[in-house]
Design goal:
Elements: H1 5-22, H2 26-30, E1 32-36, E2 39-43, E3 48-52, E4 72-76, E5 81-97, E6 120-124, E7 129-138, E8 141-150, E9 159-167, E10 170-176, E11 201-211, E12 215-222, E13 239-240, E14 247-256, E15 259-273, E16 282-298, E17 301-311, E18 328-330, E19 335-337, E20 340-351, E21 356-367, H3 374-380, E22 385-400, E23 403-416, E24 421-434
Antiparallel strand pairs: 1-2, 2-3, 3-4, 4-5, 5-6, 5-7, 5-24, 7-8, 8-9, 9-10, 10-11, 11-12, 12-14, 13-15, 14-15, 15-16, 16-17, 17-20, 18-19, 20-21, 21-22, 22-23, 23-24
Length: about 425
């Protein structure tokens, strides 16, 4: 018996229809696919649509300092609500030789004096991150909320990095301090970065004004921690107290084809008391300035720089943030004083190809000593930090759209007030995958 082509097509369609009807469930029943300018969108319910990441066209408005679009996201059909999950898996292996630092980060102020010449090898992945970002539209305005953490807490516990809401230029929550210039941070495998870098996160209320995408002005009130040494004995008792005044920070940034330049200013009003329960406080002012930026040297090279200085800003400086150097005792006058600290870094980035670049970074941080107590500090605290140096040389290969590998050589030095020195060397290996 002979059958024509139409008969076979009829049988095939009936079988396909009956098979698909038998296998329907609540998800596939509502599933629909459409094409859009920014790629394929799949409907997963009557109101929510899922789309894959499209690197050619940004889907989220970038808010503050987060890295941008996650790999996948969910949105409602009219695009007024968008929800994304992203992060990275970062694995670092390092070997120390000719000096060692007992930390996964290369913190030069932790270098042993005298130098311990033993070596060590470690592998860690607790700098891997997870983040959630939600972007909504209210009339013509965008509201952004962002939460990110990593596993760098005690015993690899989850640690909050960012948690903020941003709307109409107002940012409320925890994120990078306004005194920082993340755009001027040189690329390093080392999570610490140059020792004079300003890099920390605070709870804050910040307002940012943008003018024609070139000028940015921001003012903020930030809640920071004051680092000081308590003195529980006579003749001069000093105790830490909860801070009563936030830090006030201003930021001015201008960017153009050449790169960008930023000036940051901070005012601190720090307080302490003569007991842990007293209502009386002594207030000590502090503050500083930071000049930073980037500069395009030629088509494939970029210069990164930062110079800062001030009194009572140790908690903002990478190398000094582990010590109680915001306020130091002047025993003769029985009071706490601030001391000068200053330094900077320079970084040069060179792209050899579109996916391979190398970086050289040098940083130095110096801390002055209270003049009238020089003898006291020299005699009783010989480990008092005087200055530190940091050098990083690396090459990073972005071998996939979302994956990179790299190698880095680090050298650091710490010098104490009494002239004793210590140094350390490290080799870092990186494998990172962003999603």
């Amino acid at each position: 018996m002979k059958y024509n082509f139409s008969f076979y097509m009829l049988i095939f369609c009936m079988l396909a229809y009956s098979s698909s009807f038998a296998q329907q469930d609540s998800i596939s029943h509502t599933k629909a696919v459409k094409k859009a300018l920014d790629g394929t969108i799949i409907r997963i319910s009557d109101t929510l649509w899922f789309r894959g990441y499209n690197p050619e066209q940004g889907y989220f408005q970038k808010a503050n300092f987060d890295k941008g679009d996650p790999r996948f996201m969910v949105a409602n059909e009219n695009q007024t609500f968008k929800f994304g999950i992203g992060g990275s898996v970062k694995v670092v292996a390092f070997a120390d030789f000719n000096g060692s630092i007992a930390n996964n980060d290369f913190i030069t102020s932790l270098i042993s004096i005298p130098t311990y010449h033993y070596g060590q090898f470690r592998i860690f992945a607790n700098q891997s991150r997870l983040n959630v970002k939600v972007v909504g539209r209210i009339r013509k305005h965008t509201i952004v909320s962002f939460i990110e953490g990593n596993f760098a807490g005690a015993n690899n516990a989850f640690k909050l990095r960012h948690a903020y809401v941003s709307f109409l230029g107002l940012t409320v929550g925890q994120t990078w301090t306004t005194f920082m210039d993340l755009q001027a941070s040189p690329p390093t495998i080392d999570g610490e970065g140059p020792n004079n870098q300003i890099a920390l996160r605070h709870p804050m209320i910040r307002y940012t004004y943008y003018y024609k995408d070139k000028l940015q002005v921001a003012v903020a009130a930030e809640m920071s921690e004051v680092l000081m040494t308590e003195i529980p004995t006579e003749p001069f008792k000093v105790y830490m107290q909860p801070q009563r005044v936030p830090d006030f920070v201003a930021q001015f940034k201008y960017q153009d084809k050449f790169g960008h330049v930023q000036l940051g200013a901070i005012l601190r009003i720090m307080n302490h008391g003569d007991s842990t329960i007293t209502k009386k406080s002594t207030f000590v002012p502090g503050g500083g300035l930071a000049l930073s930026g980037t500069f395009h040297l030629w088509n494939s090279a970029m210069l990164y720089y930062q110079f800062n200085g001030g009194k009572g800003i140790a908690s903002y400086i990478q190398d000094l943030s582990l010590f109680n150097y915001d306020l130091l005792p002047t025993l003769g006058a029985k009071k706490m004083n601030t001391v000068w600290m200053y330094g900077g870094y320079l970084g040069l980035q060179q792209y050899w190809t579109k996916k391979v670049h190398s970086n050289v970074v040098y940083g130095i941080t110096r801390l002055e000593t209270p003049a009238d107590d020089y003898g006291y500090f020299e005699a009783h605290i010989p480990w008092y930090y005087k200055y530190g140096q940091y050098l990083a040389i690396n090459t990073i290969w972005n071998f996939f759209d979302f994956a990179s590998a790299g190698i880095e050589l680090l050298w650091g030095q710490r010098v104490n007030l009494n002239g004793e020195k210590g140094h350390a060397h490290r080799v870092n290996l990186l494998l990172q995958y962003d999603f």
